[in-house]
Amino acid sequence: MLTIALPKGRIAEETLDKFEKAFGEKFVFENRKLILEKSGFRFLNVRNQDVPTYVMHGAADLGVVGQDVLEEKEYDLIKLLNLQLGKCKVAFGLRKGEKLDMTKSKITVATKHEKIAKKYFEEKAMAVEIIKLYGSIELAPLVGLSDCIVDIVETGETMKQNGLEVGPTIMESSAHLIANKNSFYAKKDLILDLKEKIEATL
Ligand code: PRP
Question: What is its main location (predicted)?
């Protein structure tokens, strides 16, 4: 049996589609159920940012999570495979017509991605104040909470609809299959077989 933590929403559905292609069986979470058990797999429906936690603690052998989430914290995990889904980037959002003013003595950035944003400014030896938010990041510059934001951009529509423009990209991201280290050694054959079958669907 393999336990696999999936991030609620579209990435979970797209991952389950890949499992269907790889193993010839349909996998669907029943309404509001958080566990789906079938044919030697136990899928867990968890919040995106919680996926590495389940895998780190060994509550799940495997997980599917965005590169941006892995980058935000340092996890001692095995990265098995880029699933090539949930493609997006972490980028700046600026008020329309504005540029990142690198001459400013200190830039204020609102973001969920504190570490990624901090690193960007550290590498440029610039002073930054990071304001941690948990959602609706696009609002911050509009009401003067910050000069700009660093957030996930997929189509750019959310920023556009909120009067922001997509600025410089910090990193590209997509969903990866990750493994708990102990699980990987204890269930190596099972996990490598799964990896190969999923890889063949990409
Ligand atoms: C992300 C991000 C934006 C949106 C960008 O949120 O925070 O709000 O997607 O997508 P777009 O460029 O296609 O408009 P997500 O859906 O990941 O939800 P979250 O805020 O709960 O993480």
Answer: cytoplasm
